[in-house]
Structures are given as structure tokens and as C-alpha cells.
Amino acid sequence: MPERSWSKLWSAAEKARRKAHAPYSKFHVGAAIECDDGSIVSGCNVENASYGLTVCAERNAIGAMVLQGRTPRRVAIVVDHSRPVPPCGVCRQVLAEFADPEVPVRSRTLKGDVLETTVGELLPFAFSGDFLDEAEATRRDRSKRR
Ligand code: THU
Which residue is catalytic, options 14, 34, 47, 58? Predict the structure, then answer.
């Protein structure tokens, strides 16, 4: 994909980053998702005085995407840090719920350093709804045989 095609996504993530509510960590993160229809949704991290209630930028962007009824095509994350940040473990699981393993994820610093990865690289061996479907099928099978 040409580099140019990420520029709108970077702008949306940067704009979202400026809205971060991060008075405790002071670590402002913005995320933007290009959806299957080409539209862009974004999110910022929202912290809470009860620290554990914090929601990352990536998950808030996913929430905005779900609200639009879309699926992700590409994910961009922006931070003001010396190196790009990868999504946290919780966000990887949430991304894997909606995104195919091939979906590109890029994280960038304000200076322009970029980390390029994919949802599958970030979370190999992901737990998914497939396991629950299989378990349900096994239960049905067993009860039929009884
Ligand atoms: N954070 C994100 O929003 N995304 C990431 O990928 C890493 C961490 C937020 C959560 C918290 O508000 C702050 O960064 C410090 O952990």
C-alpha cells in the first residue's frame, strides 16, 4: 500500500491524541481505524481516578467502529514518545475480536518513527469465538448421544 494512503489515518490519530484524558499518566495516545468502507473512526485514551478503569485509545476507537457497524482495514496509533508504542495485551485481544490477522497496525511517534506490524503478529494463537462455537457443538453432540 502506498505510504501516502496512511496520511489521513495518521492525521486522525494525531487529532484524537490531542483529546486524550490522561491526567494521571500524562501519556497521551490517539488511535484511528480505517474501516471496510474507507471511513475513519478514532479514539483516545480515557483515564480515571480509579486507575484500573482506564480505557486505551485503541479500544475506544474499536467502540466507535462498532457503533458505525464496520470492520477494520488498518489501524494507526500515535504517541509523543521516544519510540512507537505497541497496543497493550487487552487491546490486542479486542483488536483480534474484529480484525483478521493480516490487518496492518502501525504505531508512530510525533517525530515520525514507525513500528509496522499486524494483528496476527501482535497476538498469535488468539483466543476467539471459534473455541466457544466448538465447545457448544461438542455439548450438543454429547447431549444427542445421551
Ligand atoms: N495506552 C493506550 O491508550 N494505548 C496503548 O497502546 C498503551 C497505553 C494508555 C493507557 C493509559 O492511559 C496510558 O496509556 C498509560 O498506560
Answer: 58
Which atom of ligand 1 lies nearest, measured to the CA of 56?
3
State the distance between the two ends of the chain, measured CA to CA, in whole angstroms.
Answer: 54
58 an active-site residue? yes
Strand partners, 75: 33, 105
| pLDDT tens per residue across all 146 residues of the chain | 555 699 999 999 999 999 999 999 999 999 999 999 999 999 999 999 999 999 999 999 999 999 999 999 999 999 999 999 999 999 999 999 999 999 999 999 999 999 999 999 999 999 999 999 999 999 999 999 98
Task: List the residue whose alpha carbon is closest to atom 8 of ligand 1.
Answer: 56
Whichever domain contains 85, its CATH number is 3.40.140.10
Contacts for 25 with CB less than 8 Å, ≥ 6 apart: 47
Around Cβ 141, how many Cβ atoms within 10 Å? 9
Domain total in the chain: 1
27, 83, 94, best to mutate for ligand 1 pocket (most atoms within 8 Å of CB): 27
pTM over 0.85: yes
Q: Which residue, by CA, sits nearest to atom 5 of ligand 1? A: 87
